UniProtKB/TrEMBL annotation:
It comes from Sinomicrobium pectinilyticum. InterPro entries: tRNA_endonuc-like_dom_sf. GO terms for molecular function: nucleic acid binding. This is Restriction endonuclease type IV Mrr domain-containing protein. It comes from the Bacteria.
Length: 482
């Protein structure tokens, strides 16, 4: 198949492309070409929001003049992400004129200096009313606007309350970090998103939204409950104890109460936790991929949570006599969930780790790569996988190392070398370890320092986490242990 020619609007602007050159390009590529718009990087969120707004506007305007397909944001192209799609032009003269006008505006050479800012302003005012072909770009615009640009705009006001009051009047959900997802019109299902959670109204199809926009097609739930201990907040079920962000949950609850139900703030309740547990339902999905709260019929999907490891549950167990029975079961005091690790070899252990990642909905199992044979010279990289893509969050690359230890010794820092080199070499966003041993404090300290320095996410599973996970996957456990 012949490779399509590309038309990069930013390159056209920088080269000062002539209208006749565009006409020639379109005539030679009337069967289709790859249109590209660079999303410029920026130090300030306000600038980044504008760059995404520009990209959204340009791509939407171009798409109207042809048949489009295969849209993507290319993150592999270097420092700048590129929005691109294939277009088969239908209105050549109009497309020629528009491409020329936009290239002139981007170069600062447009004959009408007000055309570009006025066009962007009009698009910005009407963006929520339009049915967009590329809602991803609009969602990225709102993500940067709400999560950063608003703070910069607010600093320009002598009275910050005036700014917040304006937001509350125009887009009240923005004040709590949410915006109506621009995919809503595409699938005719309203839902609201933030960088941490989603809100799905009662009339919307929860399963359809989750399948379409998180790649999670099948899931089951554990019934959970919310509790607070020593200033921290947790969700507990028969199989998990998860630490959650109170701020994330509070924003969602406030948005539902204040914006959708027009009720008073739940901060005004003398005991909000009692009120919450008596008016809400809590569920934990498989592998703790997400937590679902049902509040007045609205479903809140909380994505950012932390599964406590064995040592953390053990400490919690000592401090919380009220939940001793459940936490004791989770750390194996009541039920023998141990595995005989002497039954498997290095290759089988890596396959077991592969399966655990495969069935974990946090990760996109289509992206898993098991690198070479066990103990091979693969730079210590055993398994590579990307997280699921979510709205406003690009997939993150994780590198997992698998360390089978059959003796009673622990996994120390001296047994896991070159972690920083591996992370840097493969440009990983996250690093994880699977081991059949106890993880020594020296290794925890080493990884914590690296993670703090690089802003790296970690996923560490010692024998305790592995055995607990396998106890909830009996078929998988039976496959590897007699």
């Amino acid at each position: 198949m012949k490779q399509l020619k590309k038309f990069n609007i930013d390159e056209a602007a920088s080269k000062g492309i002539a209208s006749e050159e565009i006409k020639l390009f379109l005539s030679q590529n009337s069967n289709g070409f790859l249109f590209q718009k660079v999303v410029e990087r920026a130090r300030q969120y306000s600038d980044l929001a504008i760059y995404y707004l520009e990209a959204s506007y340009i791509c939407e305007e171009i798409a109207v003049l042809g048949k489009v397909k295969s849209f993507e944001i290319d993150w592999k192209s270097g420092y700048h992400p590129i929005a691109q799609f294939v277009i088969v032009p239908k209105k050549l003269e109009e497309l020629q004129e528009l491409l020329y006008e936009i290239s002139q505006a981007l170069a600062g050479e447009h004959q009408d200096e007000f055309w570009w800012p006025e066009s962007l302003e009009e698009y910005q005012e009407n963006i929520k009313k339009r049915k967009l072909k590329f809602p991803e770009l609009a969602d990225d615009y709102f993500a940067n606007l709400i999560n950063g640009a608003y703070n910069e705009y607010e600093s320009d006001y002598d009275n910050p309350e005036e700014f917040r009051s304006n937001i509350l009047k125009q887009n009240p959900e923005h004040l709590f970090g949410f915006w109506k997802c621009m995919y809503s019109d595409t699938i005719q299902q309203d839902f609201y998103v933030s960088s941490e959670s989603w809100i799905i109204p009662p009339q919307s199809d929860f399963k359809k939204i989750l399948k379409k926009h998180s790649s999670i097609e099948k899931f089951s739930f554990d019934v959970g409950s919310l509790f607070s201990l020593n200033g921290n907040y947790f969700v507990i079920s028969n199989n998990y104890v998860l630490a959650i962000s109170f701020t994330s949950l509070a924003k969602a609850y406030q948005c539902i109460s204040h914006v959708f139900n027009e009720e008073t703030s739940f901060y005004q309740h003398h005991n909000w936790l009692y009120h919450f547990n008596n008016t809400s339902e809590v569920y934990i999905s498989d592998f703790a991929g997400f937590i679902q709260f049902i509040v007045n019929g609205y479903k809140v999907i909380l994505w950012d949570q932390y599964k406590l490891n064995f040592n953390e549950i053990n400490l919690l167990n000592k401090d919380a006599a009220i939940i001793f029975r459940t936490t004791s079961a989770l750390i194996g005091l009541k039920e023998n969930i141990s595995c005989d690790w002497s039954q498997i070899d290095d290759e089988s252990f890596e396959e077991l780790c592969y399966d655990l990642i495969y069935y974990n909905p946090i990760f996109d199992n289509k992206t898993i790569r098991k690198m070479g044979k066990s103990r091979s010279r693969d730079g210590g990289r055993d398994i590579v996988v990307y997280t699921q893509e979510r709205i406003g969050n690009k997939p993150e690359k994780f590198i997992f190392q698998c360390k089978l230890i059959k003796s009673n010794s622990s996994l120390t820092a001296t047994k896991v070398l070159d972690i920083s080199d591996i992370i840097e070499q493969y440009e990983a966003d996250g690093y994880g370890i699977f081991t059949s041993a106890v993880i020594d404090s020296t290794l925890f300290d080493k990884i914590d320092k690296i993670a703090s320095r690089r802003q790296l996410k970690t996923a560490l599973s010692s024998k305790y986490e592995l055995e607990r996970d396998l106890s909830m996957l009996p078929q998988l456990k039976d496959r590897y242990f007699k």
